[in-house]
Amino acid sequence: MQTTPRSNRLAIAFFGRRNVGKSSLVNALTGQEVSLISPVAGSTADPVQKSMELLPIGPITVIDTAGLDDEGELGAQKIRRAKNILSQTDLAVLVCDASNPDKSLEIEWLGTMHKQGGRILVVENKIDQAGEIQDWLPLAVPKVRVSAATGEGMDLFKDALVALAAQSPAEPSLVAGLFPPESLFMLVAPQDPQAPKGRLILPQVQVIRDILDHGGLISMAGFDQLETQLKMLSRRPDLVIVDAQVFGRVVRLIPQDWPITAFSIIMARSKGDLMALAEGARQIDQLKPGSKILIAEACTHHSMKNDIAREQIPRLMNEKTGGGLKFDVMAGNDFPDDLSGYDLVISCGGCMITRGHFMARMKKAMQARLPITNFGLVLAHLNGYLDRAVAVFKHDRMS
Ligand code: SF4
C-alpha cells in the first residue's frame, strides 16, 4: 500500500489556528504520532505528511499544516505553505476551538476552501472547555463537535471523515475504459535518458496497468523496434499510444486511419480538461517576440542535457513563433498566485500530483484568463499532430 503513488491517494489536510488540536486529530486518525503535540502554539512548522490506508476508503495522504494565525515573517511563510497545500487537497478538515467565540478567520478560510471546490469537514474541538456553542457556519458544510482531550466525539469525527472521503469520485479509467475488453493497444515507448534507470516512467506504468485492469491487450516496443512490431501485429490496433517525442516519426510509419495518441495526452485527460489544454496549445500561434511563458513542472528532478522544459520546448516554440519568447521555469509544489505578466502557462504532465491539484492549477490560470496547456500537447501542436492526438477523446465526457 505504501507503494501507491501520491497522485493516486486521496489528500486529506488539516487546517486551523495554532493550538486548536489539529495535530491531536491527525494522530487520532492515523493512530500514530505523526505530528508533534505541544501546548506551545505554532509547533507545526512545515506541513507534515503521512501516507496510510483509511478503511474502507483505501490509500490516503494525511497532511497537518501550520497555524493559520501564525505571526511574523516566518508565520506568513507557513500560512503561504498552508494555502499551497489547500490547492492540493481533496478533503479539507477545518479545526477550530469551540471555546473561542471569534470565528472570523475560520469564516474567511471556509470561503477560500469553498472556492477551491473540494470537500470540507469542520471540527469544533475542545467542547469540554466550551460553554454553550453558537452556530457560526456561513455555509452548509458537515460539522462535528469533539474533544480530542477526553475522546468525546472522536468516533463521530472519524465516521464523518470516512463518509466524506467516500464521496470522492472514483478514479476514471486513463484510456482503456473507453474501449471494449480485449481491445489491442500498441505502445511505442522509447526510454528517455532522463527516465529512472531500470524502470518505466510513471505514465507508462499507469497506462499499462489501466489496460490490464480493463482486459485490454498490449503490444509494446521501443521506437527502433517499431517496424518489426508492425510486421508482427496480427490485427489493426484499436489505439496506438506513443511517447510524445516520437509522435511525428510514428505517425509517418502507421496508416492514416489508425487512432493514435500520446502518454502525455492521456495523462492530460486524466488530470485536467483536455480540450481546454488543447486550446491552450493552439494559443502558441498568437505569441509574439517578448511574450512571457511560465513552464511549471510539478516535481523537482535533476535537469539533463536537452531537458524538455528548459531546452526543447523553448527552442521549438521560438522556432515556431520567430524567436524572442521569454520563459520562466519553475519546478515543485509551488505555483505562483500571481500569474500577471504571463501570456501562456505550460504544465508538465503532472504524473506525481492528483487531478484535484492539477485542476487547481488550471483554475488559477483560467481565473487569470490565461491559456494553459501541457508538454505533450505543445509538442503535438508544434509538430502538427495535435488534432489527431486528441481526436480519440473528442466525444468522451471527461474532456
Ligand atoms: S515533472 Fe511532472 S510529468 Fe515529470 S515526473 Fe514530475 S510530475 Fe511527472
What does this entry look like structurally?
This protein has helices spanning 22-30, 72-86, 104-116, 154-166, 202-213, 226-232, 247-253, 263-271, 274-282, 308-321, 355-367, 375-382, 386-391; strands at 10-16, 48-54, 58-64, 91-97, 119-125, 143-145, 184-188, 217-221, 239-242, 260-262, 292-297, 326-331, 344-347, 372-374. α10 (308-321) runs parallel beside α12. The strands form three sheets. Strands 2-3-1-4-5-6 form a six-stranded mixed β-sheet, sandwiched between helices. Strands 8-7-9-10 form a four-stranded parallel β-sheet, sandwiched between helices. Strands 12-11-13-14 form a four-stranded parallel β-sheet. The protein has 13 helices and 14 strands. The model has no long low-confidence stretch (mean pLDDT 87). It has 399 residues and is an alpha/beta fold. Iron/sulfur cluster binds next to loops.
> What ligands does this structure carry?
iron/sulfur cluster
Could you give the order of strands across the largest sheet?
Answer: 2-3-1-4-5-6
Q: How does the helix and strand content classify structurally?
A: alpha/beta
What's the order of the H and E elements?
Answer: EHEEHEHEEHEHEHEHEHHEHEEHEHH
Total strands: the figure is: 14
Helix content: 25-40%
Quote the average pLDDT.
Answer: 87
Quick one: biggest sheet?
6 strands, mixed
Q: What is the multimeric organization of the chains shown?
A: single chain
Number of helices: 13
Rg computed from alpha carbons, rounded to a whole number of angstroms = 24 Å
- Envelope shape: globular
How far the N terminus sits from the C terminus, by CA atoms, comes to 30 Å
Question: Which residue ranges are poorly predicted, with pLDDT under 50 across at least 5 consecutive positions?
Answer: none
